[in-house]
Sequence to fold (525 residues):
Amino acid sequence: MGKEEGFPLKKPHVQQKTERRISAALRLVLVAVLLLAQIALVLVLNDLLRQRMAIAYTLLELVALAYVFRINSRPGGGSYKLGWTLLILTVPVVGLILYWLWNGDHPQKRLDLQKLPRPRESDARQEHSRLQVEHLRREHPEWGRLAAYLDRQGFPLYTGTGAVYLPTGEAYLEDLLERMEQAEHFIFMEFYIMAEGQLWDRLMDIFRRKAGQGVEIKVLFDDFGSMMRMSEEAVEELRRIGAEVLIFNPVHHYVNRLYFNYRDHRKIACIDGDTAYTGGANIADEYANLMERFGYWKDDGIRLEGQGAWTLTREFIYMWERMGGAMHQEYDYYRPHGDAPGQGFVQPFVDGPDSNPISSAEDAFLQLIGGAKHMVYITSPYLAIDESMEKALCMAAGSGVDVRLMMPGIPDHKFAFMVAESYFGELLDHGVKIYRFTPGLLHGKTVLADREAAFVGSVNMDYRSFQLHFECGTLLYGAPALETLLEDMDGIMEKSWQVTRSDWEHRPLLHRVLGGLLRPFAMWM
Fold:
């Protein structure tokens, strides 16, 4: 798709962009100042306790030590435990107070979301999904366990679904806009980043026309991801034309705790019940390469048509209602109208910090890696994993599975990539092949196992996606889209260089030092 064909150029509104960024920057500065004030207060209290209340200080140190044991006895990731343990043991009182202040024991309570029961399918639909799981077990026994695991968590397994893998951000976003043009009943969108620009202008044109036709439009985006690039005027214009808008977890609402650390990283678009999208791309110009950031921006997505679209629509509705939004119709109004042509099985699912210590996304990745007999290919822009994930990769490669990890040649977060590099040595020693995408930023999040099962969605291979973010994606089993994904991965490797042990050992000294130092604190990056 050419830029001129799909995304006509428009003159940038420089003054509006500048004002928007200044406004957002001021909000961030205010939040940062207030957080620093909290930390400074903790440090002052720590010094006063040490100098004037030695007995109280000693007691608090003992409490801090007890909390270290408590943290390490609770379920959860090793990186999370190690980060808090180091902080509390190094500066006991400060670490303990910050742990209390930031509600470290109860991450599921950090968000102001209504406590609604999880959506539950009818007994007949649950039984149908169980039958599909048994059908999958017969065709692909090694993946039936994964499907059953997610089915028991409330994420049905579907047939009657067409799945189309879209190998670039341009293809994904253009396809999405074309389907939105055909909407007759509703358009739901939930994205981490929504940014004004050429893509947004096209989206608004569609919204205006569709709202005028009576189409129900709901838009949900994350405040932290969008605040620098989405003006209040744009949000008000959305509401003025008839769209409903909710903003997830506004940063300034939660200055007293690290609530803004929990983000809605999902990418979901649902149209008329029969079509749903997810993937790695957000609604911003760089994802369609209409502007250059970090070289060529390589992303992807997937379109589901038919029965499998329902889970993503259902989960959008659930999040919308938990945020206080209203639905104007019963759930069944938003369901797919029938099957779509398609082979194989699909199983969309979501994950979030409110389900911890259960991490559906991390567990799915572990089972894809551990269940593979021949090959596992992975794309991810980030790598900050627990011992269990690192061990799974190493064991798979060490047992003869062809494990390949594809990452950016031009990373968008330098310090995060230094952390990623700190894992390379162990992975390379066990036979994992690591590729870096030469043209720029590889942002897609995919896993392909044995050309039989795959994941496409919003989940990065890092602690934030597995533990802190609300995420989504879909598993594919035996679907033709797997071959399209494999072709895309082969193309990525053709445009990449393979990292050697010598490359890793001779990386810059700054990378070696900072990567090791920052690795225990990856959960805060």
The longest strand covers residues 216-222.
